[in-house]
Design brief:
By secondary structure, this protein is α/β, with parallel strands linked by helices. It is built from eight helices and 16 strands.
Length: 322
């Protein structure tokens, strides 16, 4: 399957593109010579310049969502455009909107979807995808065959976003056809998560806590250490499931994927589900009293010790330095 013409779905909020969309535009430059960004929503076209800077030579916009959710209308508009333009591949990050759009588009154009992708490489004319299976212990590879575009859903942080120096792209407005009751669902309210410091999936430093903390009250020292390092606090699935911290803090296969410069794992044994979401970090520091903990197998620096003693001492040292 040739892959010269590639479309990239790019979520936007108030005209600002998501990091996932910019990551995929960067990757797409290496896969094909004709890269188009796809945006939706009232202010989505405000993102055109930034999409162009990351490699989009053209932008397709579905600005009128009729007051409803993006999925049905954007998929219907793109299905008509696919018939006319025939892209070779359509890439989207694993966000709610992108998954909704690609799922509906799959049904409309009768093409399957490759999802949960953790890597893509071009081999000849084919895009070969990588998928973490068995809790991340094995990697399976796949590719599309037959006529029609390949539909790809890629996990965040699979690629790094880098500007290409491109200029402002041409913007083409698409009109969505009538989608009937499929377009009735509406977003009534949007709540922005309250936080201080950087976002978990964009932070240069992430400090995560696990079951080794012993109790929800002890998570406070994870937040304090993260704040002192100008980083973001994270968590293992175990303490999220236990209700110690919100799901938004979870790092792992079913949570957020992070690739910070420094990742500090405190009281986390290192289940494969967790390591899938953070093993791409540049420097990994593990603090655990069990010297046989799996987390040490991927750590650059391992501290065998009680997290309740090590972390407070680290906090004390950082405060002393001012």
């Amino acid at each position: 399957m040739a892959t010269e013409k590639i479309w990239v779905l790019a979520d936007t909020v108030e005209g600002v593109p998501s990091s996932g969309g910019l990551e995929l535009l960067t990757a797409a430059r290496g896969f094909g010579s004709n890269v188009t960004g796809v945006v939706w929503g009232e202010k989505a076209t405000d993102a055109a310049a930034q999409l162009g800077a990351h490699g989009a030579t053209k932008v397709l916009a579905v600005s009128d969502l009729g007051g409803g959710l993006a999925g049905a209308r954007v998929a219907a508009a793109l299905a008509e455009k696919v018939s006319a333009d025939g892209p070779d591949a359509i890439l989207g990050s694993s966000t709610y909107d992108c998954r909704d759009i690609i799922g509906r588009l799959s049904a409309r154009i009768d093409r399957p979807v490759l999802a949960n992708i953790v890597g893509i490489e071009k081999q000849g004319d084919d895009l070969v995808t990588q998928h973490a299976i068995f809790g991340g212990t094995q990697i399976a590879k796949a590719k599309f065959t037959g006529a029609g575009p390949g539909l790809f859903i890629v996990r965040p942080k699979t690629f790094a976003a880098e500007e290409s120096g491109g200029g402002a792209p041409e913007v083409e407005e698409l009109t969505a056809p009538d989608v009937g009751h499929a377009g009735d669902a509406k977003l009534l309210e949007r709540h922005v998560e309250e936080r201080t410091g950087p976002k978990l999936d964009e932070a240069a430093v992430v400090v995560s806590g696990g079951r080794g903390l012993g109790s929800a009250e002890n998570y406070a020292m994870i937040e304090e250490l993260a704040k002192l390092l100008n980083g973001a606090p994270g968590a293992s699935r175990a303490i999220v499931d236990a209700g110690w911290v919100p799901y938004a803090y979870q790092v792992g296969q079913t949570g957020k994927t992070v690739k910070p410069t420094v990742y500090i794992a405190c009281g986390i044994s290192g289940a494969t589900q967790h390591m899938v979401g953070m093993k791409g970090s540049k420097n990994i520091v593990a603090i655990n009293k069990d010297q046989e903990a799996p987390i040490f197998s991927i750590a650059d620096l391992g501290v065998v010790g009680d997290v309740h003693k090590v972390v407070p001492k680290l906090i004390e040292a950082l405060k002393a330095r001012g």
